[in-house]
Design a protein that fits this description.
The chain is an alpha+beta fold and 141 residues long. It has one domain: Thiol Ester Dehydrase, Chain A (Roll), CATH 3.10.129. The protein has three helices and six strands; from the N terminus they run ααββαββββ. Strands 1-2-4-5-6-3 form a six-stranded antiparallel beta sheet. The longest helix is centred in the middle third of the chain and has 16 residues. The termini are close together.
């Protein structure tokens, strides 16, 4: 089985039970080993009291991209920690893209950066996550 096949099967296994990603309205644009690019449209119920997207929504989208990227090797990986820096607000109707890139994939840990942008290609937030790679397989060859 090729690495790309493993990545695609891992993504399919994750999405099969992922109601939260569906609720957010996330669309996966690209996915491969150590990588994921997705997008969603900001809806009114995602806004905070200031009329801008709630930071938790941006964090959740970045966390999803992170999860899809770090699990793309076919081993169950879970977050050890994650941080986010908010740079610019997003408003209702904005299309937000989250692009996760693997910086390092070791035997037990992996490090990932996720950049969130709006449709004008302006950076909204920067997310960094550390994943713990378990021995449990998501995909069997």
């Amino acid at each position: 089985m090729t690495r790309d096949n493993i990545a695609q099967q891992a993504l399919a296994a994750m999405l099969e039970k992922d109601c939260f990603t569906e609720w957010l309205g996330i669309i996966i644009d690209e996915h491969g080993e150590g990588y994921c690019k997705l997008h969603f449209t900001v809806r009114s119920e995602m806004l905070n009291g200031f009329g801008i997207v709630h930071g938790g929504v941006l964090f959740s989208a970045a966390d999803s991209a992170f999860a899809f990227a770090c699990n793309s090797h076919g081993r169950l990986s879970v977050a050890l920690d994650a941080t986010i820096n908010f740079l610019k607000p997003a408003a209702e109707g904005d299309i937000v893209t989250a692009e996760a890139r693997e910086l390092h994939c070791g035997n037990r840990t992996g490090f990932y950066d996720v950049v969130l942008k709006n449709s004008k290609n302006e950076q909204l937030a920067l997310f960094r996550g550390t994943a713990y790679r378990t021995d449990r397989l998501l995909v069997t060859e």
